[in-house]
Write a structure and sequence with these properties.
373 residues, mainly beta, 7-stranded mixed sheet, 1 helix, 2% helix, globular
């Protein structure tokens, strides 16, 4: 959400607010006045394991400015909320019933806590039309890779299906992303899609369809953004006036505790003294508690994200979209970034990107939303 003037409503405890006490309430009030604030989003708790335990949900914003129109680009809108689960499972897969000869918009949301899913529908190519909240002209593919916090809208075309047909919707974790052994985890989840007119009864038996034969393993990386062309063109600024560098890695403490680090620092969450409050009081954020960069006023900034050591990992930015202007293998520095050939001609804009281990990405932002993000 573009929290311009309402940074306190962004949500993360210890960052923009104190946690909501047991039995308490908190009203998040903000105005959706950005011209491109539409599309598929989601919300989740930030305290402890609440989000992993299921305190989360989808958030869809409809707007007349959205170039994706119901009745033109799709006929039916369906949210598919995908996540890993560490509690009891239902005994039967969930079922969806769609009529034949329709274009179904499946809003895929990875609300998980761990790894990337590859999403597919048996016997059907799916056409990508949205990446995070950016409408795109995208490819038709067998599988869509979707990492934690990412969203894609895909169109499922049932024009080749008839009354009584059924097939599987699949979301399969790429276990190669784990960088650890989770042998007790079932990485495959299935739902049933049945084809039926609303005035007829759908079929009842289990589908007999089989999965695509494409390989499921390999590096965990995003769908090639070169294949995702924003429908509303927006060129990135030609150059940045400030450059920041984030080196992501992991570390084991002296007592064997695993921790993620950015520039060698692990976030210390001051849940009852949020960073936004500290900044509002004119204090300086302690660099031993969190890695941060300060941008004064409205500027164009490049942020280098190096995944130095660890698993393939998603990175996301609150409040703003970013342009993905460069990717590569190895470690990129602020000194060397100026020699890169940036893609500034309508590059993909999104708010979550995956950086595989040993790779880097450069994102370009405009700092026009004050606050702590």
């Amino acid at each position: 959400m573009a929290q311009n003037g309402t940074a306190w409503a962004d949500g993360p405890n210890g960052i923009t607010q104190c946690p909501i006490p047991p039995g308490g309430t908190f009203d998040y009030i903000f105005v959706l006045n950005r011209h491109d604030q539409y599309g598929t989003y989601w919300w989740h708790a930030h305290r402890g394991a609440m989000y992993a335990d299921g305190l989360t949900g989808p958030f869809v914003i409809h707007s007349p400015n959205d170039p994706l129109k119901r009745g033109v680009d799709y006929d039916i809108d369906q949210i598919m909320f995908i996540r890993d689960n560490y509690h009891s499972m239902s005994k039967a897969p969930i079922e969806f019933v769609f009529p034949p000869n329709k274009k179904i918009r499946l809003r895929l949301v990875n609300a998980g806590t761990h790894a990337m899913f590859r999403v597919s529908v048996d016997k059907h190519m799916i056409n990508v039309i949205e990446a995070d909240d950016t409408p795109v002209f995208g490819p038709s593919v067998h599988r869509v890779p979707i990492f934690v916090a990412q969203r894609y809208s895909v169109v499922l075309d049932t024009s080749g299906d008839k009354q009584g047909d059924s097939f599987y919707f699949r979301a399969q974790m790429n276990t190669a992303c784990f960088a650890a052994d989770f042998s007790d985890l079932d990485p495959d989840v299935k739902a049933i899609i049945r084809i039926s007119q609303p005035y007829l009864l759908p079929s009842k038996g289990l589908p007999t369809t089989v999965d695509w034969t494409d390989a499921l393993g390999g590096v965990c990386k995003d769908l090639d953004e070169g294949l995702l062309v924003p429908r509303i063109a927006s060129n990135a600024p030609a150059r940045a006036s400030i450059v920041g560098q984030f080196n992501a890695a992991f570390n084991f403490t002296q007592v064997g505790v695993f921790e993620w680090t950015l520039n060698g620092v692990t976030l210390e969450n001051f849940m009852y003294n949020p960073f936004l409050f500290q900044v509002h009081r004119g204090e300086t954020i302690d660099s031993s508690q969190v890695t941060s960069y300060t941008i004064d006023g409205v500027q164009t900034a490049d942020l280098i994200i190096n995944n130095v050591l660890g698993a393939d990992h998603p990175f996301h930015l609150h409040a703003s979209k970013f342009w993905i202007v460069a990717r590569g293998t190895g470690i990129m520095s602020t000194a060397a970034v100026g020699s890169l050939q940036f893609n500034t001609t309508n590059p993909l804009r999104r708010d979550v990107l995956t950086v595989p281990a040993g790779d880097y990405a450069v994102i370009r932002i405009i700092s026009d939303i004050p606050g702590v993000q």
